[in-house]
Amino acid sequence: MIAYERVGMNGNPLYHWIALAVSTALMLPMPVAILAGWTPPWMRKQQAGMRLRAYGILCIYALMLFNGIPRIADASFEMVMACSSVGLGFAAAAAVLLLLSARKDSGARTAGPVAPREG
Description:
- It is a single chain.
- This protein is mainly α.
- It is built from four helices and no strands.
- Helix 1 runs antiparallel to helix 3, helix 2 (29-36) packs antiparallel against helix 3 (50-72) and helix 3 runs antiparallel to helix 4 (77-110).
Protein backbone atom coordinates (compact mmCIF):
# COMPACT_ATOMS: atom_id res chain seq x y z
CA MET A 1 0.00 0.00 0.00
CA ILE A 2 1.29 3.42 -0.92
CA ALA A 3 1.56 5.85 1.99
CA TYR A 4 0.03 8.84 0.18
CA GLU A 5 -2.95 6.91 -1.16
CA ARG A 6 -5.42 8.26 1.41
CA VAL A 7 -4.20 11.84 1.19
CA GLY A 8 -5.48 12.42 -2.34
CA MET A 9 -2.58 12.42 -4.76
CA ASN A 10 -4.44 14.45 -7.36
CA GLY A 11 -4.44 17.67 -5.38
CA ASN A 12 -7.21 20.18 -4.98
CA PRO A 13 -9.80 19.77 -7.77
CA LEU A 14 -10.56 23.51 -7.63
CA TYR A 15 -7.15 24.29 -9.13
CA HIS A 16 -7.76 21.85 -11.98
CA TRP A 17 -11.23 23.34 -12.62
CA ILE A 18 -9.72 26.83 -12.77
CA ALA A 19 -6.98 25.69 -15.14
CA LEU A 20 -9.50 24.00 -17.44
CA ALA A 21 -11.81 27.03 -17.40
CA VAL A 22 -8.97 29.41 -18.26
CA SER A 23 -7.58 27.12 -20.98
CA THR A 24 -11.06 26.69 -22.46
CA ALA A 25 -11.62 30.45 -22.55
CA LEU A 26 -8.19 31.19 -24.02
CA MET A 27 -7.43 28.26 -26.29
CA LEU A 28 -10.69 26.94 -27.69
CA PRO A 29 -12.31 29.91 -29.51
CA MET A 30 -9.43 30.69 -31.89
CA PRO A 31 -8.96 27.23 -33.49
CA VAL A 32 -12.72 26.70 -33.73
CA ALA A 33 -13.07 30.06 -35.49
CA ILE A 34 -10.17 29.24 -37.82
CA LEU A 35 -11.68 25.87 -38.72
CA ALA A 36 -15.02 27.63 -39.36
CA GLY A 37 -13.28 29.84 -41.92
CA TRP A 38 -12.36 33.04 -40.05
CA THR A 39 -8.74 34.15 -39.98
CA PRO A 40 -7.44 36.63 -37.40
CA PRO A 41 -6.12 39.85 -38.98
CA TRP A 42 -2.58 39.36 -37.66
CA MET A 43 -2.37 35.88 -39.22
CA ARG A 44 -3.67 36.68 -42.71
CA LYS A 45 -0.17 36.56 -44.20
CA GLN A 46 0.22 32.97 -42.98
CA GLN A 47 -2.79 31.41 -44.69
CA ALA A 48 -1.12 28.22 -45.90
CA GLY A 49 -0.86 26.38 -42.59
CA MET A 50 -3.85 27.78 -40.72
CA ARG A 51 -5.85 24.55 -40.52
CA LEU A 52 -2.82 22.59 -39.34
CA ARG A 53 -2.13 25.26 -36.73
CA ALA A 54 -5.73 25.09 -35.51
CA TYR A 55 -5.58 21.30 -35.19
CA GLY A 56 -2.28 21.64 -33.30
CA ILE A 57 -3.85 24.03 -30.79
CA LEU A 58 -6.79 21.65 -30.37
CA CYS A 59 -4.31 18.86 -29.62
CA ILE A 60 -2.76 21.01 -26.89
CA TYR A 61 -6.26 21.60 -25.50
CA ALA A 62 -6.92 17.83 -25.57
CA LEU A 63 -3.67 17.37 -23.63
CA MET A 64 -5.02 19.66 -20.92
CA LEU A 65 -8.30 17.77 -20.82
CA PHE A 66 -6.61 14.37 -20.53
CA ASN A 67 -4.40 15.63 -17.73
CA GLY A 68 -7.05 17.57 -15.82
CA ILE A 69 -10.26 15.55 -15.91
CA PRO A 70 -8.93 12.38 -14.21
CA ARG A 71 -7.43 14.52 -11.44
CA ILE A 72 -10.73 16.36 -10.95
CA ALA A 73 -12.52 13.02 -10.74
CA ASP A 74 -9.92 11.84 -8.18
CA ALA A 75 -9.15 8.82 -10.33
CA SER A 76 -6.71 6.13 -9.34
CA PHE A 77 -2.99 6.48 -9.91
CA GLU A 78 -3.12 4.03 -12.81
CA MET A 79 -5.92 5.93 -14.55
CA VAL A 80 -4.14 9.27 -14.11
CA MET A 81 -0.97 7.80 -15.57
CA ALA A 82 -2.85 6.22 -18.50
CA CYS A 83 -4.58 9.50 -19.32
CA SER A 84 -1.30 11.38 -18.98
CA SER A 85 0.24 8.97 -21.47
CA VAL A 86 -2.57 9.64 -23.93
CA GLY A 87 -2.00 13.35 -23.29
CA LEU A 88 1.65 12.88 -24.15
CA GLY A 89 0.54 11.46 -27.50
CA PHE A 90 -1.54 14.60 -28.07
CA ALA A 91 1.51 16.72 -27.23
CA ALA A 92 3.55 14.86 -29.84
CA ALA A 93 0.75 15.25 -32.40
CA ALA A 94 0.56 18.98 -31.62
CA ALA A 95 4.30 19.37 -32.13
CA VAL A 96 4.12 17.60 -35.50
CA LEU A 97 1.11 19.63 -36.64
CA LEU A 98 2.66 22.95 -35.60
CA LEU A 99 5.93 22.09 -37.33
CA LEU A 100 4.06 21.09 -40.48
CA SER A 101 2.11 24.35 -40.42
CA ALA A 102 5.33 26.34 -40.12
CA ARG A 103 6.86 24.39 -42.98
CA LYS A 104 3.78 24.92 -45.12
CA ASP A 105 3.84 28.66 -44.37
CA SER A 106 7.53 28.98 -45.24
CA GLY A 107 7.00 27.05 -48.47
CA ALA A 108 4.15 29.35 -49.43
CA ARG A 109 6.29 32.46 -48.78
CA THR A 110 9.22 31.27 -50.91
CA ALA A 111 7.10 30.09 -53.82
CA GLY A 112 6.01 33.44 -55.17
CA PRO A 113 5.25 34.52 -58.72
CA VAL A 114 8.03 33.79 -61.15
CA ALA A 115 9.39 36.78 -63.08
CA PRO A 116 9.50 36.31 -66.87
CA ARG A 117 12.93 35.85 -68.39
CA GLU A 118 14.20 38.42 -70.81
CA GLY A 119 15.68 37.32 -74.04
